[in-house]
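Lecture 7 notes: from sequence to structure.
We start with the chain below.
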Amino acid sequence: MYFENRDELRSLLDTHDAGQVAEAMIEHEQPAIRIRPTPLDSQEPRLGASRFLGEPDMPASLEWPVDAEGVPLNFLVQIDLAELAGTLDESPLPPDGHLLFFTRYDEPPWGFDPKDSPGFRVKYVPAGSVLSRRALPKGAAFEEHEDQDDFRRLMRCQRVLTYPDPYNFEAMQAIDEDALDDLSEAWHEGQGDEDPRHHMLGHAMVIQGPMEIEAQLVTNGIYLGSEPSEAEKARAEQLAPGAEDWIPLLQLDTDEFFMWGDMGAIFFWIRKQDLAAKDFSKTWMILQCG
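Predicted structure tokens for the same chain:
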């Protein structure tokens, strides 16, 4: 859930008999950039403008990303970082340049297998690069969208406050179980195509549980789709502290054009040190759904 100020959080928690944990949650407050899709109104978007779908604006030298079988990935979103400058007072994002996000839309990887990495990509285009509108290669179009241009949307960005998910916040365990269930339902109300939760940074709007540890372990070669061996458990314990390095770069919710699993969302995660170094090659994507 997004909040414009702390009083909105306090009011929601009071309504659900959880007001006593408000200050504890505020200690974990993280500002985020909410992304609201807006129609093009039949106008051609300027070259490099932040938008969803269509044909991306890329340097001619940048190769289109492909999956493990050599099939081109689907283009999802491009972000003009200069458009975001000033949205957050102290943003860890680069102040300029572009980010391009790709994955396989028909069968997106879940992100629990180290072998999933060819199934998604984030490309960083430095400021000053010469951009051109790139035609979609064969296999990169969304199959159910006959005319890709009809589904392009611009973006309106807004600073919001985000907080830890109630079910995964330790202090919340002290409140009544029924009240927690009601609060959690209200927290996620509207998530999906009616009011999509697209945002950058902040706290992820988790659906199944925390993802930081998953990103840390799977990017270090540990398969999480089955019970780990004793050796893997020991290695996972050693790796666990590194989970604190991971932050959500971009979350794309189910909406009228995207459907991720069963009304789910995809989450692109990046380590703080990689973001500071503008190294987006190690970004990891996780899909969660109900």
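Points to note: The mean pLDDT is 91. The radius of gyration is 19 Å.
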